[in-house]
Design a protein that fits this description.
16% strand, 276 residues, four-stranded parallel beta sheet, five-stranded parallel beta sheet, Rossmann fold, alpha/beta, 11 strands
Length: 276
C-alpha cells in the first residue's frame, strides 16, 4: 500500500470528515480537518407539499435524484406530511434516476428499485447520457437538486422536452464559524501543510471566498500551484479549481474518497522516489 509518509493533509469535507481523516491516517498521513461547508435545511414551503402530492399522484414519469442527502430530505418531508409510505410506493412505480451511488444507497434501504444510474465519474454529462434510455419529451419529470440548483442539468432536461418540476430541500452555506478557514488559508500560504484534498466543488469556492475576504486569494492560488499538492476527487471539482486559477496535481481513477487518498499517497511516493 502506498504511504503519505507523514504528509500534513488539509481536508475540507464536513459530513464525512472523520471517515476522510481516518483514511489519511491509514495511509500514513496527518489530517488537518477544517470543514468548509454546512448543509442547511431549507424551511418547509408550500411547493414541497405540492411536489410530494404530485409524486404520490403518479404524475412524474421519472424522478432524478442527485444526492443521498436530497433523497433523505425528501423522505423526511414526506414523513412529516404523513405520506412516507405513499411516497415510497410512488417512487417504486416511477423511473428513478440516480446521479451516483449515494442516492441509490438511500433508495435501496427503502426497497425502491433504481431505474437508471449515471456512470462514473457521476457528472451531469453521464447523467444525461443515462437519461437517453427513456423518452422524456412531453413528460413530467421531477428533479431533486443538491445544495444549489444545477442549471445546466435543468436546462438540458427542458431542451429535451421535459416538463420539469424542481425541488431544493437544502443549501450549501459557509460554516457558522469561519475562523478555522481563515487560519487554514494562512497555513496553506505559509507552507505549514503539504497537501489539500477537495471532495466537492463548493469546498473550493468557499475556501477562495474566505481568502478573497482576507485579500489573499492570489497568494492562495500561488501556494496551491507551487508548494501545496492539490488533490481533487473528480472532474467537476477539478474544473472548479481551474476556474479559480488552480490546477490539481492529483485526480483519482474513481471519484471516491478512498481512491482519492490512495492516489495522493501514490503521488507522494513517486515524488520521494524521484527525489532519491
Amino acid at each position: 500500500m502506498p504511504t503519505l509518509g507523514g504528509a500534513r493533509v488539509a481536508l475540507l469535507e464536513a459530513r464525512m470528515s472523520k471517515e476522510l481523516a481516518d483514511l489519511v491516517e491509514r495511509f500514513g498521513g496527518r489530517p488537518c480537518s477544517v470543514p468548509s461547508v454546512r448543509e442547511a435545511r431549507l424551511p418547509p414551503l408550500e411547493h414541497v407539499a405540492a411536489f410530494i402530492a404530485a409524486l404520490c399522484a403518479g404524475r412524474f414519469s421519472a424522478v432524478v435524484l442527485l444526492t443521498g442527502v436530497g433523497v433523505t430530505a425528501l423522505l423526511r418531508e414526506a414523513d412529516s406530511e404523513g405520506h412516507l409510505a405513499e411516497t415510497l410506493d410512488a417512487l417504486r412505480q416511477t423511473t428513478t434516476v440516480c446521479r451516483g451511488p449515494k442516492p441509490a444507497a438511500v433508495l435501496r434501504r427503502h426497497d425502491v428499485p433504481i431505474g437508471l444510474s449515471a456512470a462514473e465519474p457521476y457528472t451531469t454529462r453521464e447523467l444525461l447520457d443515462a437519461l437517453e434510455a427513456i423518452d422524456i419529451d412531453g413528460k413530467e419529470v421531477a428533479l431533486v437538486h443538491y445544495g444549489e440548483r444545477n442549471d445546466a442539468l435543468a436546462d438540458a432536461l427542458e431542451a429535451r422536452g421535459a416538463e420539469l418540476e424542481e425541488l431544493c430541500l437544502y443549501e450549501w452555506v459557509m460554516p457558522d464559524d469561519v475562523e478555522p478557514l481563515r487560519t487554514l488559508v494562512g497555513e496553506l500560504i505559509d507552507g505549514h501543510l503539504d497537501a489539500v484534498a477537495f471532495t466537492s466543488q463548493v469546498q473550493c469556492r468557499h475556501l477562495f471566498q474566505v481568502a478573497a475576504d482576507l485579500g489573499r486569494s492570489e497568494e492562495l492560488a500561488n501556494a496551491l500551484n507551487s508548494h501545496i499538492v492539490v488533490a481533487a476527487i473528480g472532474p467537476v471539482c477539478a474544473a472548479a479549481l481551474k476556474s479559480l486559477g488552480v490546477t490539481p496535481r492529483v485526480l483519482p481513477a474513481h471519484p471516491k474518497m478512498g481512491p482519492l487518498i490512495a492516489a495522493l499517497a501514490d503521488y507522494f511516493e513517486l515524488s520521494h522516489k524521484g527525489e532519491g
